[in-house]
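seq:
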Amino acid sequence: EELRRVLSDDADGEKRAAALFVLSYQRVGEKVARLCRQSLADSDARVRGAALQILADIVNNHKGVEIDLDPVLPRLDDPAAGVRGKAMGMLVPLAEKPAHRKKMLSAAPRLAALMRMEQPESRDLSFTLLGLVSRKNWDRRDFGAWVAWAAKAAAGKPD
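struct:
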């Protein structure tokens, strides 16, 4: 209970992130995923990043825990580059799963825009994620092709 209080009420983002990491050792994955979903809206990038790091661990190692992408996809627009990178990294193993494909297609225009970023992490991860979701292999500098495909994908007509 004390850790939950720190996570929800402490003014220090570093303490909130630490509390979330400790709480992630609970045995019930759904409870951990719920705490992470709630933490994705935190005002501190360290807490949002911790939540995405834990969700990535769940995605990679606990396949039976369902992850809702609705609170994750807005993190593609996060002001912190590290949080955007963690969001994309968390999405990579889900890219080819039919249950998540429709929501990822809706985020395709944002991913295409991230390909133009100067930061290698954002640029490279968005290219990787778009390649997986689209099943296309255009050159990473062919922004026109990626943007056109992303617009069609978001409209529900990816191919």
